[in-house]
Design brief:
Number of helices of chain B: 4
Distance between the termini of chain A: 41 Å
Structural class of chain A: alpha/beta
Largest interface: A-B, 30 and 22 residues
CATH class of the domain at 6-71 in chain B: Mainly Alpha
Distance between the termini of chain B: 59 Å
Radius of gyration of chain A: 20 Å
Number of strands of chain A: 19
Strand order of the largest sheet of chain A: 5-6-4-14-15-16-13-17
Number of helices of chain A: 10
Strand content of chain B: 5-15%
Number of domains of chain A: 2
Helix content of chain A: 25-40%
CATH topology of the domain at 6-71 in chain B: Arc Repressor Mutant, subunit A
Oligomer: heterodimer
CATH superfamily of the domain at 6-71 in chain B: BFD-like [2Fe-2S]-binding domain
Bound molecules: flavin-adenine dinucleotide, FE2/S2 (inorganic) cluster
Number of strands of chain B: 3
């Protein structure tokens, strides 16, 4: 194990490796990622692989737009020899209440003002996008063609390999057990395979970020909640876009290999870091999805799993340093959409550590927003 | 076995493919599964998992008993969503009836 590092990043999910890559690219020599399991073993490798720009807050729109544009050339930029399976089949978001329809109008106005070319659709227009959509009980839809799918495991691998070529080190199966702080300054981390002296630590620990916060004496304003997901057998391609509904509580897309991936949230999900799977979810998911997309009755359920959302009160991530501990940076609280934000996360955290002006303004995402109480809530989440 | 022997029939992967991935540094069944889809097919790895563990055992020098098998993801037998729906509806009627 290394003994010293310029920056230690805790967590080998998409956020950790994207930050490592950007730091290494900016010339920081000793960047070390510590991952307790294998790369993408956390939420990243368990996620729905969805990429969208149709958000309800300015920051989520701007970060997802920046990131989605980055995905368009990511394979070449990272010189990856595998396939990151980026597919822009769009997201069709459906409304089933008047209130939601009103929110859609606001979302579209916001998105369009930021250069995202999403559209409000009538139900007839929605059926042109997905001919077998059952529109009973629906009111309207929004659509954006540039949203879509990206393979989480390959994208993580692509960033990790590029970071390593630039000199970053990635230690898997290594767990950070404590963080050393002296006089309010980061001095190093302890791991189960030895200590590393460093002045900068990035908390990119996903669903475990609050435990990392505790190591430096902070109570971070996040909690983790289990979210379940399932996949069906692979069949011929019949569904291009991701179909999503906030009021009906569902998302479903057919991924490039042919299987349908689908998930939903549940008020009663445990918040104790459990990631076991349950049958109740499968029943609820089946009921909802076969009503909206009836042909899915004929597809076989194959496998289910679960992962952790790391959630903030306003459903936007927390980026940047903290006042209490010098050298401690946060890239946490992605609230169920951190995979699609990785390019933005990587660049702004690297710039923030180096002290450069950030590509996107991140003051609105600083942790102090919760103390100051000026929160802007993201309305559009499952 | 030759290098182009199929190890995973469902996801169409050969022994050569798996050896190449192991040489790239993947060291557990779960990692191989996520990067290559091995074990993710209709049989859910029942045919190929032992063969992959054997390859891992050869590469790492660890006996198979010490290697972590893939995480088991229910269900055991694949079933159509429509069949699940019918079962829920029947269950519901019984509860009322
Ligand atoms: C079911 C589900 C569906 C989702 N769908 C989508 C989607 O469609 N689109 C989207 O953009 N997002 C989605 N998300 C959210 C997305 O998965 C996460 O926001 C994103 O992956 C977060 O990445 P991360 O790198 O920050 O965290 P993670 O991927 O969780 O990585 C954190 C890593 O830190 C490691 N770690 C923790 N503690 C320690 C320690 N002490 N020492 C060393 N390592 C440690 C963990 O092992 C883990 O690998 C979904 C999430 C779930 C659960
Ligand atoms: S043979 Fe590998 S999943 Fe079926």
């Amino acid at each position: 194990m290394v003994k010293t590092a310029d920056v230690v990043i805790i967590g080998g999910g998409i956020s950790g490796v994207a930050i490592a890559y950007n730091l290494a690219k900016k010339g920081i020599k000793d960047v070390v990622v510590i991952e307790k399991n294998y790369l993408a073993s956390g939420a990243t490798g368990r996620c729905g692989a969805g990429i969208r720009q149709q958000w309800g807050t300015e920051m989520n729109c701007r970060m997802s737009k920046y990131s989605c544009e980055a995905f368009e050339t990511l394979k070449e930029d990272l010189d990856y020899d595998g396939d990151i399976e980026f597919k822009q089949g769009g997201y069709l978001i459906i409304s089933s209440t008047e209130k939601e329809h009103e929110q859609f109008k606001k979302n579209i106005a916001l998105q369009n003002s930021l250069g995202i070319q999403s559209k409000l659709l009538t139900l007839d227009e929605a059926k042109e996008v997905v001919p077998f959509l059952n529109t009973d009980g629906l009111i309207s839809a929004t659509f954006h063609q540039k949203d879509g799918h990206l393979n989480p495991f390959h994208t993580t691998q692509a960033y990790a390999e590029a970071a390593k070529r630039l000199g970053a080190q990635i230690h898997t199966f290594t767990e950070v057990t404590d963080i050393i702080v002296e006089n309010g300054k980061i001095k190093g981390v302890k791991t189960n395979r030895g200590d590393i002296a460093t002045n900068v630590v990035v908390n990119a620990a996903g669903g475990y970020s609050q435990l990392i916060g505790n190591m430096v004496g902070l109570e971070l304003p996040v909690f983790s909640e289990r979210h379940q997901i399932l996949v069906t057998e692979a069949v011929e391609p019949i569904l291009d876009p991701m179909v999503m509904s906030f009021s009906l509580n569902l998302y479903c897309q057919q991924v490039p290999h042919g299987g349908f991936i689908m998930g939903r949230g549940d008020e009663g999900e445990p918040r104790d870091l459990r990631i076991t799977s349950g049958w109740h979810f499968v029943e609820e998911m089946t009921k909802t999805i076969t009503r909206v997309l009836p042909p899915l009755k004929n597809v076989r359920f194959l496998r289910q799993w679960a992962g952790l959302y790391n959630i903030t009160p306003d459903r936007q991530p927390i980026y940047g340093p903290v006042d209490e501990v010098e050298g401690f940076y946060l890239a946490i609280g992605f609230s169920g959409h951190g995979f699609m934000l990785a390019p933005a996360t990587g660049i702004v955290i690297a710039e923030s550590i180096i002290g450069e002006k950030t590509t996107l303004p991140i003051d609105m995402l600083h942790i102090n927003r919760f103390k100051e109480g000026n929160l802007i809530f993201e309305p559009s989440v499952v | 076995m030759k290098d182009n022997t199929i190890i995973c029939r469902c996801s169409d992967l050969t022994q050569g493919d798996i050896r190449e991935l192991i040489a790239k540094g993947y060291r557990t069944f779960d990692e191989l599964k996520r990067i290559s889809r091995i074990g993710m097919g209709p049989c859910q790895g029942r045919t190929c998992m032992q063969l992959v563990l054997r390859e891992l055992s050869i590469a790492t020098g660890k006996p198979i008993s010490e290697l972590a098998p893939g995480t088991f993801r229910p269900p055991v037998k694949s079933i159509k969503l429509g069949e699940i729906l019918e079962a829920i509806e029947e269950g519901g009627e019984e509860a009322h009836g």
